[in-house]
Amino acid sequence: MIRVGYFAYGSNMQRSTFADRRGIAPAAAVAACARGWRLVLDKPPLFPSGHGFANLAADPDAEVCGVLYDLTAEEMAHVELTEGVGVGNYRRVEIEVVRLAGAAPARAFMLVSDRRDPQLRPSAVYMKRLIEGAGEHGLPAEWIAHLRALPTAPDTTAAAAARAVVDDVLARLKR
């Protein structure tokens, strides 16, 4: 069985999003960081909601923290399916990550998007998922404080409706 590393930096850090909404049960999940990338919340959603979602921008002076998951190739394909890689929502990039537990650097896949709108802000509901996921996996307190300090936009009826559609689609695709 082929195994791959997947570096999650957005809502997939949250256990309930990854396991319950996506149906993925990773063999392992550890806190990790990747140098040369900056977290931005500028990715437009697939379904209009007026909010931005997690994305990364190349930045040689930055570092992003997240969760390194140990997945099967089939589980990684499911992540890509449910994140819309096939329709250009994200694309796969291979990076080097450093586990916070001090192990040797590892290669991992992450998903980034070329679709950007710097005017977008994440909803408070979405940021709660990132913050909760970061805490669940023991990311550094400084990183969690950084997430808490990011500006959010109020939730809207359009965002709630879009979440309901996404939840329905994910339930149908759940492994």
Gap between N and C termini: 17 Å
Number of domains: 1
Structural class: alpha+beta
Low-pLDDT segments: none
Described by the principal axes of the CA atoms, the overall outline is: globular
Please report the total strand number as a whole number. Answer: 5
Alpha-carbon Rg, integer? 15 Å
Q: Please, what is the CATH homologous superfamily? A: Gamma-glutamyl cyclotransferase-like
Q: Count every helix, treating DSSP H or I runs of 4 or more residues as helices.
A: 5
Please summarize the sheet with the most strands. 5 strands, antiparallel
Mean of residue pLDDT? 91
Q: Can you tell me about this structure?
A:
With 175 residues, the chain is of the alpha+beta class. 32% of the residues lie in helices and 33% in strands. Strands 1-3-2-4-5 form a 5-stranded antiparallel sheet. A hairpin with a 6-residue loop joins strand 4 and strand 5. Helix 3 packs antiparallel against helix 4.
Map the helices and strands.
Elements: E1 3-8, H1 15-21, E2 28-43, E3 53-72, H2 73-82, E4 91-99, E5 106-112, H3 124-136, H4 141-149, H5 157-173
Antiparallel strand pairs: 1-3, 2-3, 2-4, 4-5
Helix pairs in contact: 3-4
Give a brief description.
By secondary structure, the protein is an alpha+beta fold. It is built from five helices and five strands.
Features:
175 residues; alpha+beta; Hypothetical upf0131 protein ytfp; five-stranded antiparallel beta sheet; 5 helices; 32% helix
